[in-house]
Structures are given as C-alpha cells and as structure tokens.
Design goal:
It is a single chain. With 144 residues, the chain is an alpha/beta fold. It contains six helices and five strands. Strands 3-2-1-4-5 form a five-stranded parallel β-sheet, sandwiched between helices. It is globular, with a radius of gyration of 16 Å. The N and C termini lie far apart (60 Å). The model has no long low-confidence stretch (mean pLDDT 87).
C-alpha cells in the first residue's frame, strides 16, 4: 500500500486545497493529511480564522482524504516516517526554494519522494482574507 502525506493550515478552504488533495489521492492508496494546530499557526506569526477542530473536520470530510492528523511542528520528514508515507505532496510554489531543495535530499535519503503540484492560480487563503477585509470595510462605511 502506497501512503501519501501532505500538510497545511487549510484555513478558508478553497479550490486550490481541493485540487491538491484530489491530485494527491490519485497517486497513492491512502492519503493522510496533517492539519496545522492553532499554536503552530501562531508560532508562524499568523492567526487562523477558523479554529483547528473545524479545519480538521472540513479536511476529514473531503472524499479524497483517508485520515487527518494534527501537525504540531514543521518536521514533515519525521511525520512521514512515523506514518509510513513514501510520498510527500506539496504545492509547486515551494519548488526550487533552498528549504525544499534541502528537504528533497533529506527525504530521498529516507526513500520518500516529494511530488509538487501546480499552484492553483488566482486562489489563496491570503487573497480570500484580503477580500473579506475589503467587504467588511465597505459594510462599515455603509453603516456610517
């Protein structure tokens, strides 16, 4: 059985998230998804709009996902080894970065392949968050 792993915050779940999970499931028998806990999101200097438990339940409900695990730290290699994953899936916005070039070497040494999927253009949680802020600001202006 080929086990795949991917991880993310999955805040403001959107079509880019769905595309990654769908494509990942097509390349493995079992897809396990790490959902970043609120404390780790905060450590990275951000704040999730949706609490961890809700984000985990949303991801768990996606038909392409076989299991969800909490992501307590950034150590994806240890998690892959713990889960028995032979493939790590990630968006191609990380491809070629120094960090991921190093990961590729570390993962390869453990027999784990990293597969990059195309980033869904025009869709990101950051863009959605900015749009919501604009809408909220406009609504505040209407009330004045």
């Amino acid at each position: 059985m080929k086990i795949g792993y991917t991880a993310g915050v999955y805040d403001l779940f959107h079509i880019g998230h769905l595309n990654l999970l769908k494509n990942a499931k097509g390349l493995c028998d079992k897809l396990i998804v790490g959902v970043t806990v609120d404390e780790l999101v905060a450590y990275k200097g951000k704040k999730a709009m949706i609490p961890y438990e809700d984000r985990a339940e949303i991801v768990r409900s996606i038909k392409y996902v076989d299991a969800v695990v909490p992501q307590y730290d950034m150590d994806k290699l240890t998690m892959c080894k713990k889960l028995g994953a032979s493939i790590m899936f990630v968006g191609d916005d990380w491809y070629g970065t120094e960090k991921w070039k190093n990961y590729e070497k570390e993962f390869a040494a453990e027999g784990i392949k990293i597969v990059y999927f195309p980033y869904t253009k025009g869709t990101s949680s950051t863009q959605i968050r900015k749009a919501l802020q604009c809408v909220r600001q406009d609504n505040l202006e209407d009330v004045k």
